[in-house]
Write a structure and sequence with these properties.
About 15% of the residues lie in helices and about 35% in strands. Strands 5-6-3-2-1-4-7 form a seven-stranded mixed β-sheet, covered by helices on one side. It has a five-stranded mixed beta barrel with strand order 9-11-12-14-13.
Length: about 450
């Protein structure tokens, strides 16, 4: 054991100088005067650290996510059962005396850290409502639900490496924060969709193992882990490969149904069949995006700037096409984002920009019967609803999904409405536990309080 790294730290033991990467940080529930972190070192070992009171703001500004630091001037204590999410026998206590020095990015230090629990481990932890990390293959679309007390949450149905099903409930405080749960990216992602989740509470509800989020929960799409490759193989060898196509028919609705519904459908996904009857702009149909997170970037001279990822030497061009879609019952406005536009036009946005007949290319989408997977959004300007289109196929080829991965750099800026944020990942592995339960929650869900952070 290397006593100079995270693996050698013990409560009341020596506190050597560490070189670490900041993986996660959060404020625990009911502990608003605390700030917690997860650090990982070059060995791939992780540890939880915390700071209290007046020093929270200072260290929050000094310790940035995915940045490497040298840290000295700290102590190690026993983990707090209420806030602890890791299995390390010690927790780092930081404060005003802690000296934090930024160091060059060390590619040998993993960019993600999980203590992924086995099924048996989760079942053991469920007896005491313990905390676990979990990875699974998303099997169905994300469901929006509410408890009897009207508390909103989303439900994920997954299959783990033991080929067993489980549901995970993400409470609103996690499900609506893009940095914790990038729903748009997940829903637009090509199958198989594999999700790793940290800090989940494990619980048994009427004999069924369930998981639910806590304030320490973060959701990662397609992480680089051994389990990810196992799940990909499971998907490849199963009948799940058409999960995006075999959407339950009760999700397919006429447009009039959407237009006549109330605000309860906002954020929910549906299938509609119809035609693009109008391209609403031939000027504002693409935007300049960060190649890492897909958010709109700003041009700074010959370079680019992303508010999340900083200065960039290149950007990518992505579709954002405003349209009207009609069926026999009505018309709805919407925006076709990159994946769906690739499916309809069979070319990337970058490829489209190299051609002369841009207007004709866009017009080629009009008046053809197609099947659209949409998500309903509020139209505040017109006090109505609109939609974002995440998948689309002409009916004669609806079982073929074309997704190009070509995203070359561009030199032509354009505006907003970013699609999903991706995650660049290297994974260090551990074996841990996970957090709370869910889906049968229509009666007891409100009781599944996020008491982990």
């Amino acid at each position: 054991m290397d006593n100079n790294g995270i693996s050698g730290l013990r409560p009341k033991g020596p506190a050597p100088v560490l070189e670490v990467r900041v993986i996660r940080k959060w404020v625990p529930k009911y502990r608003e005067n605390e700030l917690h972190f997860v650090f990982v070192d070059e060995e791939g070992m992780g540890i939880q650290a915390f700071v209290k009171g007046k020093n929270c703001k200072t260290l929050d500004s000094k310790l940035c996510l995915q940045t490497c630091y040298q840290i000295k001037g700290y102590g190690c204590t026993d983990p707090d059962n209420f806030t602890n999410t890791l299995t390390h026998p010690a927790t780092m206590n930081l404060g005003n005396a802690t000296i934090i020095t930024s160091i060059p990015d060390n590619e040998n230090i993993p960019k993600q850290y999980f203590e992924l629990a086995t099924r048996r481990r989760m079942e053991v932890q469920a007896k005491t409502e313990g905390i676990v990390d979990y990875i699974g293959l998303l099997q169905r679309r994300i469901e929006d639900k509410k408890t009897h007390e009207n508390r909103p949450y989303v439900v994920l149905s997954l299959k783990d490496c033991s080929n067993q099903d489980i549901t995970v409930a993400l409470w609103e405080e996690i499900a609506t924060v893009k940095s914790r749960f990038n729903r748009a990216e997940i829903e637009a992602g090509a199958a198989p969709v594999i999700l790793a989740m940290t800090g989940l509470k494990a619980k048994t509800y009427y004999g069924t193992l369930q998981l639910s989020s806590t304030s320490a929960t973060h959701v990662y799409l397609n992480p680089q882990t051994v389990e990810t490759e196992t799940l990909k193989e499971m998907y490849k060898n199963s009948d799940m490969q058409n999960w995006e196509i075999t959407t339950p028919t009760d999700l397919e609705v006429p447009i009039s149904h959407l237009l006549q519904s109330n605000a309860s459908i906002i954020g929910k996904s549906f299938i509609i069949r119809g035609k693009i009857t109008e391209i609403m702009s031939y000027n504002d149909w693409h935007y300049t995006a960060c190649p890492k997170c897909r958010q709109t970037v700003l041009q700074t001279g010959s370079n680019w700037f992303c508010v999340d990822d900083g200065n960039l030497d290149k950007a990518v061009c992505m579709y954002r096409i405003p349209v009207k879609i009609s069926d026999k019952t009505g018309t709805i406005t919407g925006t076709i984002f990159d994946r769906a536009a690739n499916q309809l036009l069979q070319q990337t946005c970058e490829e489209a920009l190299t051609k002369q007949n841009l207007t004709q290319q866009l017009q080629s989408m009009e008046n053809k019967e197609a099947k659209f997977q949409i998500q309903v959004q509020p139209d505040l300007k017109n006090r109505s609803i609109r939609c974002t289109i995440n998948n689309a196929n002409y009916l004669h080829t609806e079982t073929t999904y074309h997704t190009s991965t070509s995203t070359p750099p561009i030199t032509t800026p354009q505006p907003v409405t970013p699609p999903p944020k991706g995650q660049n990942i290297t994974s260090a592995k551990r074996s841990l536990v996970m957090l709370e339960g869910l889906e049968a929650t229509t009666t007891k869900e409100a009781r599944v309080d996020d008491t982990t952070n």
